[in-house]
User: What shape does this take?
Amino acid sequence: MKSILLPFILLLSLTATAMIDPYYKEAVQRGYRIEGDSVVLPNDTKCLIDDFNNKRCGKEYFDAPYCVAEGNYVWDDNACCEGLKPYLPAGVDGQAYCKAKGQVDFSETLRNPFLWLGILAFTGLVFSSLLLVRKFIKK
Assistant: This one.
């Protein structure tokens, strides 16, 4: 019995980590490419991340209105485009991303312990039933 429960316990205890350094937040949320310690702006100029964050370089791009598209990483709750919301699955350490409101996340469903307990109970019931049928057939 222990050998059956062990894989389920291990699966439920796994955590995922996908955290991005907040130092890159402003550039990443705006969708700008990062190369080393520089951000590549839409006009293909490069600024040091520190200069961009402090508006010493690329101020016009920093101040431009923006929204974070679906599937992209987000730090600010109000930065996702219309119809999207920041999302980070329960039990996952990492960075939120923008996701459509009301969209079902299959990975979160798989992490639900009640789902696995139900599957385990159903499997136990089927296995027990098969053992009982086998016992009656032998008689």
